[in-house]
Amino acid sequence: MLTEPAGFPTRRIGAHTERGRSIGCMDDRDAPALRWQPSSDAHAETDDWRRSLTAGGAVQRDAENRLYALLLRVALGEVRRRSSSLRFSGPELDDIAHQAAADAVIGVLRRLHEFRGESRFTTWAYTFAVFEVSSKVGRHFWQHPTVSLDDTGWDRLPDRLGISPEEAGIAEELLTALRTAIQTVLTKRQREVLLAVVVHGVPLDALAVARRTTRGALYKILFDARRKLRVYLVTNHYLDDGGREAK
Amino acid sequence: MSARDRLQAFLRTDPADSGCGETMSLMHVFAELVLAGLDAGARYPGIAAHLRGCDACGEDFAGLLAALSH
To answer: Do the chains contact at A23 and B19, CB–CB below 8 Å?
Structure first.
């Protein structure tokens, strides 16, 4: 079973020293014969970055500045790419990008010793910028909140699943069973997370900030909740194992 | 799509799903496989399953691919 890292700051990006944490039985790290190897040029580039980022003095400062410029470009591109789905724009986006790039550089330096060269160094470094943008956008969500995390809104669940009122009327028995399952088989925490993410549309990273946890931990809660609901509906013959209606 | 189909799609979970932590730690490798035209999903089925199910990681992956494509 999946057990996610304890917190976002301790996430081990590119560190392959631990066993996999698959929700199911598959461990993607158990495929050494299939391991992707970057080109020799990429290895040389990685070696250059390693040397310069650990050289100390002016050489290291110069490398850190180059890394910051690189990650700032990525972060700016990422906030612009996401801008249509965000509730803020302009200077706020640029601020997020600059903060993300600065924190990404810190993250890269802190975890440089864990990088095993399974990709280009820059590809690995880009992930820090992208993840930092995600985290900061999530944090920013609560500066412009349009939702509350109270225990209301379950009536909107069918709509949030894309089910029209007409379809809901036809499937009334099934949806009643779903509401029963939500109240009887889910834990309080599973109901809260399901409500926030699915009904209120709170992004996982934003909810992670509000609940002081990680994206991965919330995803696991949702994963387990969905599985429990499905088991209930199958066990009580509202759905069959193949996913078709059985009642 | 009927209400039942939509509900079934929402409740469907993949036991191979690697979760966010594993996916984030290998996203850089997965992305390079994709951009190299290799079958990343065959090599890392758990990550492929996760990216299909997790909007947040899917968005990050799209961002990484966009950054690498520029």
So the answer is: yes
B51 touches chain A (CB under 8 A): no
pTM: 0.84
* Residue B25 belongs to domain spanning: 3-69
**Using the 8-state DSSP alphabet, how is residue A195 labeled?**
I
Overall domain count for chain B: 1
Q: What ipTM does this complex have?
A: 0.95
Residues of A whose CB is below 8 A from B33:
36
CB contact under 8 A, B28 and A14: yes
Contact A26 B46 (CB under 8 A): yes
pLDDT in tens, B12-57: 999 999 999 999 999 999 999 999 999 999 999 999 999 999 999 9
The partner residues of A245 in beta bridges, in order of sequence, read A239
CATH 1.10.10.10 domain extents, chain A:
154-235
Q: Which fold has domain A154-235?
A: Arc Repressor Mutant, subunit A (1.10.10)
For residues B15-31, one letter each, b for 16 or more C-beta atoms within 10 angstroms of the residue's C-beta and e for the rest, the string is: ebbbbbbbbbbbbbbbb
